[in-house]
Amino acid sequence: MKRKYIVLLIILTLPLLDVFYACCNCDDNIEEKFYTNSGFSLKNIDNSGEEPIESASENINKKAYGIRLQVNRQSLSFLKKDTYQPLFSQGAYAMSCDCPPEITYDHTDKVESIKIITLNDFNADKSANSDITEYFKIRKGYKDVIDLVKSLNYDFAYRLEETEYFDLLLMTPPSENNVQHQFKLIITFENKPNVELLTTVNLI
Amino acid sequence: MKNINILICLLFTVVFSNQLFSQEENSTLYTNRFQLKVEGGLNMPLTDMNQNKITDYFIEYSSKSKFVPSLSAIWFIRKRFGVEADLKFIYFNDGRSTGTNFQKFANKEFGENYYVKAYSPIDNNFIPVISLGMVYRIETEHFYFYPKFSIGVTSFYSNWGGIDLKEKNTNNEYKISYSQGKIAKDNFTLTPAVTMGYKLSDRFWVDLNLKTSFFRSNFTYETTRTDLYTKEVQQLEKTPYKENMAEVYFSVGVTYVLARKNY
Predict the structure, then answer these.
(1) Phi, psi of B62 (to 5 degrees)
(2) I need a surface site. Which of A139, B27, B159, B230 has the fewest CB within 10 A?
(3) How many domains does one find in chain A?
(4) B171 close contact with A: CB closer than 8 A
């Protein structure tokens, strides 16, 4: 007799559990798309003013110098995914839940590292062809350049940001004034050849 | 002699008969048991909390005289004594101009060498002030005089503030922060007051009110400067706001007598 009650209780509980599960019955048409970083470009920026601006000038104040890395992204393809349909109840019971975004854009080419190399003697410690990545910082928050890797490998939700730029500020200026400098930015990928970008500037 | 005594007794009866029978239904003398009052008047701060410093812009407490409405209810528990609950509608409506003035002040202070962006959540605000107290009652047939004493809370916000500084001709950025812990400030307030009025009818009375409020502000703003590149934090200044504050509220009120009782 007691066992009968337990079985009855389980049978009655099952639809209740299903209602709870139905709360997370999200849209079943989820598109998972992919993108590639289709192009990179490098420009000099002058941060003397309130906001940094791209500069075509040969001479830039060495204390307000930076480089702008522009990234172009291209959507590639998508595939469809289906989600769970509740057995006893419909999704009308759903109040709120953390549904995944309806469209996602995942990266295909994985960036491994970013380096900035000086092609000239920079200061007493950094001669030509030295890695001076540590002298540059990402503009917002002065984070290390390596943190840019996360942004380049970012998986977007809903909308792909097709063009984005990142400003890298030179926080340790060269010791000498009015000297022409060349900087090479190298992006290494896990599954494709490196990208090398070059910029020239006269730091005054 | 006997006639004279009788005459005096008759005269006494005639003269004071009105008061002897004043506890009857038509009398308003000490019969008011529960009353509601609507008031409006000028609230005048007598002291100024401001110190002519940049942190003044973050405090949502007006040092200007303003028209303030209020509501109160008195319940007389004895012939002479009652308890009062009072609700005063204090407001601060200088949020926008204060924000603009803060930006101007920051520009003046730092604008020579920096690009300046000042921000603070300062806004217009509306804070009901509740006070509870005792009322002593002195009445005649047409006039009344109530000395009162209440305790309550005067509340206002002392916001945080920040200034972003971008140094001209360099890549350097700094942040000036102004903070003092908890934003909401509740200050214990003592309020002696007097009300004097005229009984227009059994139910409607009009009166003049004079309320004084005293509280002490007790908080200190701390100013820090952060170099956003090196993350170095430098403490610049401490600005204490420890002032004895006084306000006078002069108002006109209309009272409605809800319930009556012969004490």
Answers:
(1) -85, 130
(2) B230
(3) 1
(4) yes
Domain that holds residue A73: 2-80+97-203
Residue B64, pLDDT above cutoff 70: yes
Name the closest residue on chain A to residue B117, using Cα atoms: A50
Instruction: Check CB contact under 8 Å for A50 and B166.
Output: yes
Kindly report the pTM of this predicted structure. Answer: 0.75
Predicted confidence at residue A24, as pLDDT, reads 59
pLDDT averaged over every residue in chain A: 84
User: Does residue A104 form part of some domain?
Assistant: yes
Q: Are B106 and B163 in contact (CB under 8 A)?
A: yes
Domains of chain B: 18-260 (2.40.160.20)
- Identify residue A187 by its one-letter amino acid code: I
Mutation for B interface: A44, A45, A46, A50, most B CBs within 10 A: A50
Confirm whether A147 is domain-assigned.
yes
Task: Assess if residue A91 is contained within a domain.
Answer: no
Q: Do B169 and A61 lie within an 8 Å CB cutoff? A: yes
Taking CA atoms, B175 is separated from A18, B58, B80, B168, in Å, by 52, 17, 61, 14
Give the angle subtended at the CA of B89 by the CAs of B87 and B92, to the nearest 5°: 150
Residue at A131 is within a domain: yes
Cβ separation B171–A171 shorter than 8 A: yes
pLDDT at residue B62, as a whole number: 84
Percent of chain B with pLDDT over 90: 67
Respond yes or no on whether ipTM tops 0.90.
Answer: no
Contacts of A61 in chain B (CB under 8 A): 169-170
How would residue B12 be classed by pLDDT, with cut points 50, 70 and 90? very low
CA distances, B255 to each of A186, B42, B87, B131 (Å): 82, 18, 15, 18
Report the CATH number that the domain containing residue A166 is assigned in CATH: 2.60.40
Say whether residue B228 is in contact with chain A using an 8 A CB cutoff: yes
